[in-house]
Structures are given as C-alpha cells and as structure tokens.
Amino acid sequence: MKAWLPSLLRLALVVLLVAFVTNPGWFEPLLKPLTENNAPAIYNQGSLLTLTLLHLRTVLIATVAATIVAVALAILVTRPAGAEFLPLSRSLVNIGQTFPPVAVLALAVPAVGFGEKPTLIALFLYGLLPIFENALTGLTTLPGNVMEAARGAGMTGWQRLIRVELPLSAPVILGGIRLSVVISLATATIGSTVAAKTLGEVIIAGLLSNNLAFVLQGGLIVAALAVLIYDGLSAIERYTARRMGQATGD
Amino acid sequence: MIEIEGITKRYDATTVVDDVSMVIEPRTVCVIVGTSGSGKTTLLRMINRLVEPTAGVIKLDGNDNRSLPGYELRRSIGYAIQGHGLFPHRTVAQNIATVPVLLGWDKDRIKSRVEELMTLYQLDPEAYGPRYPHELSGGQQQRVGVARALAAEPNVLLMDEPFGALDPIIRTKAQEDLLAIQKRFGTTIILVTHDMEEAVHMGDKIAVMDSGKLVQYAKPEEILARPASAFVETLVGASEKPFRLLSLGRVRDAVEKGTAEGEAIPGDASQRDALAELLWSGRPALPVKDEDGKPLGRVTVDGLVKRAARPA
User: Fold this and answer.
1) Domain that holds residue A154
2) B192 vs A249, which has greater pLDDT?
C-alpha cells in the first residue's frame, strides 16, 4: 500500500464527518431509503453539530479528570512512602472498571439527578483503569541505569519525577489515555438514557421510533470520531516516543 | 583525601561490606577490584551515599559525608556507571549539563563548560551537542557519560565499571583518555572493576575486596609481587604475573646502551609490548626512540626478562 493512502482516507473521513454534522440535509437522499412511513431521515429534534460538540465535551471532561486522578495515584503508589497503597489502589480502580456504566448511571441518578453529571461519573470511573495501569507500567519499568544516573547526579525525588520519570513514561501513559478516550466515546452514548446531551440521543430516538436512519447516523458519527481520535492520539504517542529516544515498532 | 573508617553495610543478616578502612590520597586513581558480590559496588555507592552505611564514617577532605543532604553531596561528586545511563530524552549537551543545571550555573558558564568537555572528548559541540544519545556509538555514549560526570568540576569521580560495555579496542582508548583527563584536572578517581588487567593499568593503588572484606590495599607492584592471600593470587593470575609487572613499566626505563637493527619502538610503550615485539620478531634487541624520533638506545630480551622476575 502506498504511504499516503491512509492519510488520504483519514482526510476524506474528516471532510465527510464535518460535512455531515454541519449540513446533514445534503445526505438526506442517502438515508431516505432506510426510513418507513415518510419518517424524517435526518435527526430533527436538535442540531447534530451541537450534539457532537456536547458529546466531545463530556468525554473530554471525564478523561481529563480520570487522567489527573489516575496519574496522581500511580505517582503516589510508586513513591517509597506510598508503596503499601499499591494493592489497595489497584483493587479500587479495578472495581471502577468492573462496575457496568449502566449500573453506575442507575445508582448516580438518585444521588445527583438527571443530566450530564451521572454520565460524567460513569465515564470517569470507567476511564480510570487503563490510564492507571499504563501509568503504573510506565513508572515501574524505567531503565535502571538511567534512574541510577539521575540519583547519582544529585536530583531530588521531585526533580527525578518531573525531569526523568514522567517524560520517559509519557508515551505509555498516553497509550492509556487513548484507550480510555475511545471507551468513553462509545460509552457516552448511553448517557442519553438519563438525559445527558450526547449523540446517544439520536440513536435512542431512532430505536424508540423504529427509525433505522437515526440509529445509523448517530452510530456512524460516534464511530468516525472514535477512529479519528484514536489515530490522532496514536500519532502523538509515536512522536513522543521518538522524542523520548525510544525506538518504536512502526 | 577520602578517609573510609570502619565502614560496614548489612542487609538483615547478610553483611555486604565488612568493617572496611582505607585512605585514598588526593589526585590519585584508586581501583577497587573483586569478584561479583564482593561488596565493591556497595562500598563505592556509600561514598556518595546512594547507599547509607550501617556503621562507620566516610570523610571527604576531613568532612563527614553526612554533613550535607544526600542530593547536595552527590552534586559535588562525579558519578559514572556501566552502560552510561544517559537520559534518552535529553540531547548530548543537555545530558552533560545535568549537574551544572541542578547547581544553578548561569547559561554562558554551562555552555562553555559543555563545549570544553565535548572538545576534550573529541566530540564536535556543533555536530554532536544537539543529537540524542541513541544516535551515538557505544564509545561516544561512554565518553558523554564520563563528560556528564565531570561537568561540575568535581574533585572526586566515582566510576562503577565504566568500561564494562565497551569492546576491547575502544576500552583501551577510553582508559587512556581517562588517565589523560585525570592528570589534567587532578581529579581523585575511585574506579570499581572486576578486571585485574584494568586495575593494574589504571590504579595508583589497588584495593582487593573479597566477601565484603578489604583483603589487600597497596600499589600494583606490591599486589603483584606479594599477594596477601590465595584469593589475591588467583585474582592476579599466577601465569600472568610477570607480564602484568612488565606492563607497569615504560620502555624508556629499561633502555640499555647500544644499538640494534630493525624498526624502533617508542620510549612510552610498555615494557610488556616491547617484550612481545622481541619474542614475535625473534630478535634479541630492539632500538628505542623518543617522541621526536631521537634514538635512546635499545631494549634486550635478557634485560626485560630480568625485570619480569619477582621483585625482592
């Protein structure tokens, strides 16, 4: 395969996605055959663009919060003083992952009400594990002689963390964030069952009114976002790995 | 001057370093030799307090090394390790500047010091300064590792098998470079190795360690001539002794009057190399010249053989 082909495909996908969420009317003839009884082919209870942006905002907030907490936790348990909390924090984060997001939504609604909040809580808990596990791997598998040199040069604990440990584990931590973002993009759709403004609204509306066109357009936008964001973050990861002087497989 | 007084390190029931006392004179090279597990690396790491001793005191120029916080002490002592441990995400210039940056030197002073060291180590600052460690050869990485250790002009340089990962040809060159730089800066060097050849070649004094104890601490000639125990004898290698003894002397010190045929040997070559050349070419004598090509006399097989005998 030619080297420019993947980039061309990505570019085409971006153009298609932007065109679809800004001018969904253009695509009406394509989706029309999927509807019955003259139902609308394009979601008509809100703008697709607004929903897409709100969807992305929800994922962004949840991921930033999960990143801060997971990385901080990983740093804490890899310090000598925090080492004894390692098993405890591992099981806590694992529980967050085992709990189905739907169950979290159901439990969170009575506590914080309908809307975006229960969705954020579910995404936050669900996103912790991949980031935490990767940060832990990154921070515990640093090359021994580099750490020895950092101590031998007279760096304090903080200086080693900021100048050596975090930069060197950045590619692995980014890998965890990438996994977490993609999971959250998909999971955010079920947030619409508790009235969060996400693309799930389009899919649910389609399911309720038996309108395949709605289901498909909601699903496709989420899928395109996931593919593009995954690709983008992978590229950043590869760049960081090169910057950190690590050889990459590809 | 480094005074090590009754230093002991125990991990639970295991004693890694057992009551070691020794004095290292300023501006000399002290080599600590021993097998793996002899405690030599632990002893070295207690000098800059990467390991805290269980008992005993280490004084640097009369001051207890615990009078400063560990990280400040380590900034004042150079430290070079096997496999160099360069920071892969920093350029060569940034790597060398590590300790000066920690000490808060101003930019110009750091820049000129980095350039000085790179030039000294035959690395063009323009070409190599902005490169990353993985873009360098093994020998170059090792030189950058030593340059980083020397960057803040430390009086003391600790080296833990710094040449261990190098191939034999580059290793010999690296050893020569280190000795030249040691003479230039007058740095006190403490070097840990398991290679007796390296110890005899580099050390003003050699400390032999076995199972945590200091077995013998003496000049190389003394260690070769009068090993303190069977262990030292094994380490020296009985069949190697005469040749190691010859490798300590320069040809110019073994010159006799007279002339000889054939290609001359430089006066700075080791007596061991001269004997090897004599035996290989089957000649009884070799002419000797100094750096300017001026003849100094000759060395003979008989003369060298006498020098290889056990000193009285």
Assistant:
1) 51-243
2) B192
Domain limits of chain B?
2-237, 249-307
B102 touches chain A (CB under 8 A): yes
pLDDT tens for A9-44 read: 889 999 999 888 888 888 888 888 887 777 787 888
CA distance B190 to chain A (A): 15
Contacts of A29 (CB under 8 A, 6+ apart): none
- Domain at B2-237, CATH class: alpha beta
Number of separate domains in chain A = 1
Q: Do B132 and A245 touch (CB under 8 A)?
A: yes
Question: CA B166 to CA A200: how far, in whole Å?
Answer: 61
What does the DSSP 8-state code read for residue A246? -
What letter represents residue B227's amino acid?
Answer: P
Starting from the edge strand earliest in sequence, which strands make up the sheet with B14-24, in order? B14-24, B2-11, B55-60, B63-64
Instruction: Count interface pairs A-B at CB distance under 8 A.
Output: 67
Residue A250 in domain: no
Q: Which residue of B has its CA nearest to A169?
A: B89
Contacts of B157 in chain A (CB under 8 A): none
| Closest by Cβ to B48, choosing from A146, A152, A168 | A152
CATH of the domain at A183: 1.10.3720.10
Q: What is the CATH number of domain B249-307?
A: 3.90.1280.20
Query: Mind listing the pLDDT tens digit for each residue in B132-184?
Result: 999 998 889 999 999 999 999 999 999 999 888 788 888 888 898 899 989 99
Q: The pTM is what?
A: 0.81
